[in-house]
Amino acid sequence: QVQLVESGGGLVQTGGSLRLSCAASERFFRNVAMAWFRQVPGKEREFVAAIRWTADFTLYAESVKGRFTISRDDAKNTMYLQMNTLKPEDTAVYYCARSRATYLSASDYYHPGEYDYWGQGTQVTVSS
């Protein structure tokens, strides 16, 4: 069974850094886009970043642009999210997800419905 497992979350002070990892249970990273979303209680799941299967295209939410970097290592079946200059408003549960289709339009990346597999989430808490 395909699984996505996030790790790397934790508690960090404002201005600190964390690196999240998303490991797949089998070789199913190929030919699909991968993304990170986040969610806080009472709010909808929010797009954070995505990377095309070719890794030549990345997309970021405006709120994290310039601070977060998404990357992938298909040989290790792992995706990463390097988060720098963290702010209290970055506090959330972070989820990784795999796209349903190989090719997505730029607007499709933002929608949770375009992803068919999700990890269980990892908590990121940024203290002020």
Descriptive tags:
128 residues, mainly beta, seven-stranded mixed sheet, four-stranded antiparallel sheet, 11 strands
Written overview of the protein:
The chain is built from no helices and eleven strands. It starts with a strand and ends with a strand. The strands form two sheets. Strands 2, 4, 5, 6, 9, 10 and 11 form a seven-stranded mixed β-sheet that branches. Strands 1-3-8-7 form a four-stranded antiparallel β-sheet, with no helix packed on it. The chain is mainly beta and 128 residues long. A hairpin with a 6-residue loop joins strand 4 and strand 5. It is globular, with a radius of gyration of 14 Å. The model has no long low-confidence stretch (mean pLDDT 93). 0% of the residues lie in helices and 47% in strands.
Structural class: mainly beta
Sheet-strand content, in percent, reads over 45%
Q: Which residue ranges are poorly predicted, with pLDDT under 50 across at least 5 consecutive positions?
A: none
Strand elements, count: 11
H/E topology pattern: EEEEEEEEEEE
Summarize the main sheet.
7 strands, mixed
Q: What's the shape?
A: globular
The rounded distance between the terminal residues' Cα atoms is 40 Å
Gyration radius, rounded: 14 Å
Helix content: under 10%
Mean pLDDT: 93
Helical run tally: 0
